[in-house]
Amino acid sequence: AQTLWVHNCDSPCPSPSQLAALERQVFDFLGYQWAPILANFLHIIIVILGLFGTIQYRPRYIVVYAIWTAVWVTWNIFIICFYLEVGGLSKDSELLTFNISRHQSWWSENGPGCVRKEASMSGIKGLDNHSYISVIGCALEYRYIEVMHSSFQILIALVGFVYACYVVSVFTEEEDSFDFIGGFDPFPLYHVNEKPTNLLFKQTYLPA
């Protein structure tokens, strides 16, 4: 029953962790956040590897996923600290874009209730061809949306870690039980050690 519960998919089906990572990847692409994009891509690959290991009875792949969850939790804690500006970090820095652009989170201009306005900078020397973008009316500041995203990822990663440990333990128990009944024993459990026929004849004709 445990095995059927673990393997309820005949092919790699999307997990909640994978769907959440894909959703986050979309918005990071829209915001040109290159560091999170790479991290999300690696996370999706490792999640697929973990699903493959679960379906194909490959505990090593699941162990790799379990180790990655620790890295993933650490990364999301860093993202939380980044947007909350903990430890000298600044949400306005270009750290997440590798200092190649000044893009910010997509939610900074497209959050719930946000209204984006552009004001021409004409009349100011050197800024005639530029416009000033202001965002007003946001129901929730974008950094808190990013924090909620990362917190949700941490929660899913912790659940995934517990599930991965459970699956590995199930596989280990199955391998041990199979070994116990002689599955990997080169000498079968019901092996009969037959004596040579000449020795049997000698025992038959021993003098009384």
TrEMBL record:
<keyword id="KW-0472">Membrane</keyword>
<comment type="similarity">
    <text>Belongs to the NKAIN family.</text>
</comment>
<feature type="transmembrane region" description="Helical">
    <location>
        <begin position="34"/>
        <end position="55"/>
    </location>
</feature>
<keyword id="KW-0812">Transmembrane</keyword>
<dbReference type="GO" id="GO:0002028">
    <property type="term" value="P:regulation of sodium ion transport"/>
</dbReference>
<keyword id="KW-1003">Cell membrane</keyword>
<feature type="transmembrane region" description="Helical">
    <location>
        <begin position="62"/>
        <end position="86"/>
    </location>
</feature>
<dbReference type="InterPro" id="IPR008516">
    <property type="entry name" value="Na/K-Atpase_Interacting"/>
</dbReference>
<dbReference type="GO" id="GO:0005886">
    <property type="term" value="C:plasma membrane"/>
</dbReference>
<dbReference type="Pfam" id="PF05640">
    <property type="entry name" value="NKAIN"/>
</dbReference>
<keyword id="KW-1133">Transmembrane helix</keyword>
<feature type="transmembrane region" description="Helical">
    <location>
        <begin position="152"/>
        <end position="171"/>
    </location>
</feature>
<protein>
    <recommendedName>
        <fullName>Sodium/potassium-transporting ATPase subunit beta-1-interacting protein</fullName>
    </recommendedName>
</protein>
